Structure formats: C-alpha cells, structure tokens
Amino acid sequence: QVQLVESGGGLVQAGGSLRLSCTAYGTILRIDSMAWYRQAPGKQRDLVATIHSSNATSYADSVKGRFTISRDNVKNTVYLQMNSLEPEDTAVYYCNANGLRIVQSRYFEEWGQGTLVTVSS
C-alpha cells in the first residue's frame, strides 16, 4: 500500500510564501508523475502543477511565475514553493502520485489527505 502525507499549509498574508511537502510511503518501485491540486470552498478540484519522472513540469496559468514544483526522488517527496500568494490561492491543497508498487509491479495512484492554505488580504 502507498500513502501520501502532506505538510506545510497554514495562514499567510497576501504577498507571502509557503512551501508544501508531500512524501510517499510504502513499497514503491518507482513514482512516475507527482502533482498538486487544489480545491477552494464550493469549487471543483483543479490541477495546479505536475512534475514527471523526467523532471518536466507544467503549471496552471493562474500560478505560472509564482509557484514552483520540484521533487526529491530519493525521498519520494514532491514540493510546491508558493510565492506572491494571493487571497484567490486559498484552498485545500492535495498531492497526487502515480507509479508502480514493488509487489507484482502493480500500478498505483494515490491522494494525500489535503492541507489547508489560507491567504489573508
């Protein structure tokens, strides 16, 4: 079984910065893509940023130039550095990862429990 554990959310003033972390635990053979999503109250869950095993990245237009996604393959961890935060960035942030388990090389896709980011104006 694979479990994703997130940390780093909190309350910050507009213009400030936060760094989210998400570590994958379990019998993992490899992790392919890792991503961050967010869900604001009353809205759908949207993709924020993705990073592939090649380290290729992509971002939602709303966060380009402000957020940076990175990963540490040794630690099975993905990070989201968020700068110049705006009240509109307030949401629960979820990490997502997919890849293969060691046992029978089974595919997995898992979600973290979510971490709340609140940006005050």
Q: What does the model show?
A:
By secondary structure, this protein is mainly β. The protein is 0% helix and 62% strand. The chain contains no helices and eleven strands. Strands 2, 4, 5, 6, 9, 10 and 11 form a seven-stranded mixed β-sheet that branches. The protein has a four-stranded antiparallel β-sheet with strand order 1-3-8-7, with no helix packed on it. Strand 5 and strand 6 (57-59) form a beta hairpin. The chain starts with a strand and ends with a strand. The model has no long low-confidence stretch (mean pLDDT 97).
Biggest pleated sheet: 7 strands, mixed
Backbone structural class: mainly beta
Low-pLDDT regions: none
Order of helices and strands: EEEEEEEEEEE
Helix content: under 10%
Number of helices: 0
> What Rg, in angstroms, do the CA atoms define?
14 Å
Number of strands: 11
Strand content: over 45%
Average pLDDT number: 97
Overall morphology: elongated
Give keywords.
single chain; 121 residues; mainly beta; seven-stranded mixed beta sheet; four-stranded antiparallel beta sheet
Task: Please outline the helices and strands.
Layout: E1 2-7, E2 10-13, E3 18-26, E4 28-39, E5 45-51, E6 57-59, E7 67-72, E8 77-82, E9 91-101, E10 107-111, E11 115-120
Parallel strand pairs: 2-11
Antiparallel strand pairs: 1-3, 3-8, 4-5, 4-9, 5-6, 7-8, 9-10, 9-11
